[in-house]
Design goal:
Layout: E1 3-8, E2 16-24, E3 33-38, E4 41-47, H1 69-76, H2 88-91, H3 123-130, E5 137-139, H4 145-148
Parallel strand pairs: 4-5
Antiparallel strand pairs: 1-2, 2-3, 3-4
Length: 151
Amino acid sequence: MGRRYTRYAKNKKQIKMVAITFYGGVGEIGGNKIIVEHKGTRLLLDFGTRMGFASEFFAEFLNVRSNTELKDKITIGVLPMIPGIYRADLIQPTGIEDLSNAAYSRLIASDSAMLKVPGLVTYEDYIQMHERSYIDGILLSHAHMDHTGDI
């Protein structure tokens, strides 16, 4: 989970003004992912690549699996578990059921836990639960990979 900071008005009621949650970019190079919240509106400021982090797991000839790239990156921590921003079809590959027939049976069922990220609320699930998206908009500070690379 991200680091959350909240600013309050200086009066007796302590009215919440702005909350800022850092999901990356703190104490590291790149990976800037910041959510700014105010009065029910959430803006995502940047969604950058964590420079060097993925290279701890992947190399020139060893990359993430193309059909489960998003799931793999969330599982190993390259991408944060932010609720309601990742599409379900990018987490769990579609079309797996088409690979089975009378002569060939899949070893992994399409609803297997191996194809899910425990605790992750997908974009579709969040909209179904809250009748709105989690993020209201995205702001990009500038077009460098450390600020835009994971969009």
